[in-house]
Amino acid sequence: MPTFRSRHIVKSCIVLAPAISGCLALGLLSQATLAQSDASTAATTTSYLPSISDFMIATIQPRHVRLWVAARSKDWPFAAYELGNLKGAFDRLGQAHRMEHEIPLQDMISSVTARPFEDLHKAILAKDTTAFDKAYGALTSACNACHQGTNHGVVVIRTPTDAALSDQYFERGTP
User: Fold this and answer.
1) Which of 33, 50, 93, 173 is the most exposed, fewest CB within 10 Å of its CB?
2) Domain chopping of the chain, boundaries
3) CATH 3.40.50.150 fits 52-169, yes or no
4) In this predicted model, what pLDDT tens digit does every residue of 65-98 receive, in sequence order?
5) pTM (2 d.p.)
């Protein structure tokens, strides 16, 4: 025959079991909610795609200037580095934005930059300022042609006039 103590233990277990189960369920529910919240935060965080303008202003335009500054300083290793960064920025832009005004953007970028990039590379290897200036001018013209072709002709890029100044031409009319 069960003793008073064993009956008390059984009753306590019967009363405590649902409470313990409830706590466990509540813990699992909060973990699931937290995981779902983390997943939605990650999805929101990774869904940002910089606009073409963001790419241009934040990565391409500064690299265009830095490339010029490097050549003016005759810092050819830095010029080579910035040329590689500029190419990479254009590649990322074309991958992120496949089409612009029904034009395959990567194809347009490649068609207007391939030759100037090749000529810039050769000029940097040769440490030839004159060849660099010519290739840099061709790249700058290619940028402006691309802006025209994508209906962004109001954005006119030029060879910087000073390392501290922007390479964007803000005055209306022909640069």
Assistant:
1) 173
2) 1-48, 52-169
3) no
4) 999 989 998 999 999 999 999 999 999 998 988 8
5) 0.68
